[in-house]
Q: What sequence folds into this?
């Protein structure tokens, strides 16, 4: 068990609501993620507006992953004094842009002075048909949306002092809300790919007590690429055409790459968080 799972286990034994991208309570989904300077980003990588926008989008991704409509956001922002009034305006404009794109009402939060720019966002969403991690069955097909691996390539480029293309996936996360909304009825489980597909397959494996037979080879470099924010989904073989139709209707690339099987699965990636 890695250190992140160890810490979470102290709470999950007390609450059955822990284990998905958000906590499902009475049709509402509550999710929270942190976006900290020198952990998730460096300030010279993006503008302050881009940083705030990304911080919101990665949190909205958790709502999308559970087929929930985001409604409200609470923001906690710790910022250095050298950011000043103009910087504060830029940060707020990034939050507002993401909120308006998804119809979210920013209802409050907290701000404090800090040595670095650290952001934490809580999203409150509502769903009539939640998509959970539990539900995958033996023989189900596994698929991911879009392309995976680009985020790690972009991160390596930044760490070497390079500059990203304006359309880089690291800067412009594309959420798959339209596809998930239309396809949920055919899906047995799902989650967003935030820690790398190999690590997130491990989470599905643990909750469903299943492993995988891979139908398509995925290199370790691609499989360990975190912060992709694509969707990882499972569905019965008979639902394959229906899922592919919904993907085509929403112009969502989708790749079937594995089948759920009664076997052990071993994650080949190092933990992202510790």
A:
């Amino acid at each position: 068990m890695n250190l992140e799972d160890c810490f979470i286990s102290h709470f999950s034994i007390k609450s059955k609501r822990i284990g998905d991208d958000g906590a499902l309570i009475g049709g509402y989904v509550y999710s929270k993620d942190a976006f900290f300077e020198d952990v998730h980003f460096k300030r010279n990588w993006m503008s302050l507006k881009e940083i705030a926008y990304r911080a919101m989008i990665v949190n909205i991704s958790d709502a999308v992953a559970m087929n929930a409509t985001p409604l409200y956001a609470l923001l906690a922002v710790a910022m250095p004094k050298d950011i000043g009034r103009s910087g504060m305006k830029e940060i707020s404009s990034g939050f507002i842009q993401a909120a308006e794109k998804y119809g979210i009402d920013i209802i409050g939060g907290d701000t404090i002075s800090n040595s670095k720019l650290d952001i934490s966002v809580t999203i409150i969403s509502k769903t009539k048909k939640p998509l959970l991690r539990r539900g995958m069955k033996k023989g189900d097909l596994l698929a991911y949306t879009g392309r995976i691996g680009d985020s790690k390539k972009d991160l390596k480029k930044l760490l070497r002092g390079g500059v990203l293309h304006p359309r880089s996936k690291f800067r412009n996360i594309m959420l798959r809300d339209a596809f998930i909304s239309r396809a949920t009825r055919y899906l047995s489980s799902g989650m967003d790919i935030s820690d790398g597909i190999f690590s997130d397959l491990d989470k599905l494996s643990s909750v469903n007590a299943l492993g995988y037979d891979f139908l398509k080879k995925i290199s370790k470099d691609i499989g360990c690429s975190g912060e992709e924010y694509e969707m990882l989904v499972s569905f019965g073989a008979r639902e394959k055409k229906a899922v592919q139709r919904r993907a085509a209707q929403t112009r969502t690339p989708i790749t079937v790459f594995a089948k759920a099987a009664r076997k052990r699965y071993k994650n080949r990636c190092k933990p992202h968080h510790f």
Helices lie at 3-12, 48-65, 84-101, 150-159, 177-183, 197-208, 220-223, 240-249. The mean pLDDT is 92. The beta strands are 23-25, 28-36, 69-79, 105-113, 118-126, 141-145, 189-192, 211-214, 231-235, 254-261. The domain at 21-126 is CATH 3.30.1330.10 (60s Ribosomal Protein L30; Chain: A;).
